[in-house]
Amino acid sequence: LPDLRMVIVTDSRQPGMLHVEDVMQAGESRHHKELMDLHSKLSFDEPINIQFTSGTTGSPKAACLSHHNIVNNAYFMGLRIGYERRPQVRVCVPVPMYHCFGSVLGGMCMAVHGITLVFPSTGYNSQANLEAIQSE
To answer: Which of 20, 22, 39, 92 is least enclosed by beta carbons within 10 angstroms?
Structure first.
């Protein structure tokens, strides 16, 4: 990962990495005020993501997803899959982050359940996917 500049961990502190608590403490009072101002303007049911569908059940369309929808989907999918019972879960994410699997079941499950994401390649590569599954 030649472009990787920083790793932020949420569990145990690791050499060369920042812990999320340190990141939160580094914020200045103006950052907190900006966050609170933004928080007062947003609602959980506002759209945050537009997923474009391929039209497998009809015509292609754009579906608006809300904050609440994405967080709840990630939370309940993670519970259903059993992430809370397996603390060292690794999920192979062979799809782009703009894909629903990549953004919700990948990115949001990582944030909500603390799972590890494995990106096997910069673009879809079935051989890299199989190698990542076997090695991880």
So the answer is: 39
Cα gap 85→129, rounded to integer Å: 25
pTM here is 0.67
Which phi and psi (to 5°) does residue 86 adopt?
A: -130, 90
For residue 128, what are its two tokens?
Answer: 């890299």
- 47 Cβ contact partners less than 8 Å away, ≥ 6 residues apart: 64, 65, 66
pLDDT by residue, tens only, the chain of 136 residues? 788 888 988 888 989 999 988 988 888 889 989 989 998 998 999 998 888 877 777 788 888 899 999 999 999 999 999 888 876 888 899 988 888 888 888 888 888 888 888 999 988 899 999 999 999 8
Q: What is the CA radius of gyration of the chain?
A: 17
d(CA 63, CA 55): 11
Distance (Å, whole) CA 51 – CA 36: 28
